[in-house]
Amino acid sequence: MGKHFEFIVIGGGSAGYAAANTYGKGPDEVTVVDSAAELGGLCILRGCMPSKTLLYIAEVLHHARHAATFGLDIPSAKADMAAVNERKKRIIGEFAGYRAEQLQSGKFQLYRSSARFVDEKTIRLDDGSELTADAFLVSTGSVVNFPPLPGLEPGSAIISDNVLDLDHLPESVIILGGGVVACELTQFLNRMGSKVIQIQRSPKILREGSPEAAEVVMQAFRDEGIELHTGTKITGIERVGAGFQVTFQADGQEVVKEAAYLFNALGRKPNTANLGLEKAGVALLPSGHIKTNSLQQSTNSRIYAAGDSAGPHEIVHIAILQGEVAARHASGLRPEPIDYDHLTKIIFTDPQIAATGITEADLHERDISYLTAEYPFDDHGKSILMEAKYGYVKIWAESSSGVVLGAECVGKDAGELIHSMAVAVALKATVHDLLKAHWYHPTLSEIWTYPIEEIADAITANKN
After folding, report:
1. What is the separation, in whole angstroms, between the first and last Cα of the chain?
2. Residue 412: inside a domain, yes or no?
3. Alpha-carbon distance 198 to 179, whole Å?
4. Given 231, 249, 266, which residue is the final one in a domain?
5. How confident is the prediction for the chain on average, in pLDDT?
6. What CATH number should be reported for the domain holding residue 195?
7. Are residues 262 and 411 in the same domain?
8. Shortest CA distance to 409 belongs to which of 444, 361, 438?
9. How far is the C-alpha of 226 from the C-alpha of 220, rounded, in Å?
10. Residues 366 and 315 in one domain
11. Which domain covers residue 286, as residue numbers?
12. Which of 310, 338, 366 represents a domain boundary (last residue)?
């Protein structure tokens, strides 16, 4: 007989650690099973933290190279990729070390192994031993996707893991994809000094945001010298000498591009393929995500899922919330489901894209009457003096009450600016409530006052 636990967590990333810590009954009742060579999870090791470390470095370099705009004489600025990589490793090492300490703290048991379901209450580890539990959480994250493109095979291209660990500057790179990872790392490589060619299938990049937001970033990319191709169909990928050649259709023409490196940035998929979930009665969605209800239960009510393996939003703070909801429910409590009407999302390109609340598309589907207003960064004092003129802020509020339903910010530090609106959405504040606040001048944040005032005036006019 194997050992029995109340709660077994498979995967020790952000969702898994949050769940184990929340369940919190001690090492005899809770265990985490993690097969990674290094503890920490995707966000810390190969996702959020290393990418944002590198993106900020690239932003500093970008400003240095454009110092003349501000009347500064900086003769030259270039990247020392070995030093950049060492700084990144040092910072990420500290984060990963802290997470490893948390996982090894003794609050719960830790097995360094993969796990596969034998039946609905039993998993088998690498050494053949078996563990049983009253409830399980699957939080195994995601893996790089290799879609069926002619000539694209695992090992034939670098992936985000490789880009985040570069200790040299690639002379030229072809980047396949236009999602968040693709765009953030496209701009990173371009700003560090690589010649970058980005190829996207759909007419716009960044489908995670609004079409208007995508247009702003596309313009910024092209202004920075990124060779961006959208509305394409790839017909061939092959090695040519020491590099790669990609052939694609665009605007009815065949286009051929070559570069030293090929970067597959065509998204990720849930890491659910080798868990034996079918033996546990756990169904998958067509996307590969585990099908869950609002309490994170799968089609087997004793098995929960959270994070990238569950979706629908591959965002760290959502993964943590999902893990906490699952753990509380598994322990016998009655947690409130996550309110996705309060969802906040950020894309760390420059300009950044950030949004919170119910999307306008959802408002139309729900037939909710609302008012909207926006204001551009290129007409705002602080952004003008910062040469941060790309983008806009936009707010939408319920027509009669003025309750803020959502907002979007595309521009400098949008990821920071969106949080004032995220608080407004969560607290169901009205535009009139927001006007009671002191919005300091000159700040980027005060740009919100223009659309807020416009909606407030419209509501007042409608009542008169």
Report:
1. 76
2. yes
3. 11
4. 266
5. 96
6. 3.50.50.60
7. no
8. 444
9. 9
10. no
11. 3-39+104-144+269-338
12. 338
Statement to judge: residues 354 and 413 lie in one domain:
yes
Q: Count of domains in the chain?
A: 3
Question: If pLDDT is split at 50, 70 and 90, which confidence band does 464 have?
Answer: confident
User: Is 71 exposed, middle or buried, given 0-12, 13-18 or 19+ CB atoms closer than 10 A?
Assistant: exposed
Residue 125 lies in a domain: yes
CATH of residue 357: 3.30.390.30
402: left (phi over 0), alpha (psi -120 to 50) or beta: left
- Residue 273 shares a structural domain with residue 416: no
Quickly state the pLDDT bin for 154 (edges 50, 70, 90).
confident
Pairing of strands 195-199, 172-176: parallel
pLDDT value of position 167: 95
Same domain, yes or no: 360 and 292 = no
Residue closest to 208 by CA, chosen among 176, 184, 228: 184
Mean pLDDT value of segment 48-61: 97
Residue 1 pLDDT exceeds 60: no
Domain membership of residue 90 (yes or no) is: no
Are residues 413 and 455 both part of a single domain? yes
Question: What letter represents residue 60's amino acid?
Answer: V
Residue 313 lies in a domain: yes
HEC readout, 243-260: EEEEEEEECCEEEEEEEC
Output the pTM of the full model: 0.95
Per-residue pLDDT reduced to its tens digit, 245-286: 999 999 999 999 999 999 999 999 999 999 999 999 999 999
**pLDDT of the residue at 188:** 98
One domain for residues 308 and 357: no
Of the candidates 196, 194, 197, 216, the residue with the CA atom closest to the CA atom of residue 205: 216
Sequence-separated (6 or more) residues with CB below 8 Å from residue 192: 58, 61, 79, 81, 84, 169
User: Could you read off the pLDDT of 293-317 as tens digits, one per residue?
Assistant: 999 999 999 999 999 999 999 999 9
Token pair for residue 452?
């807020």
- Do 251 and 385 lie in one domain? The reply is no
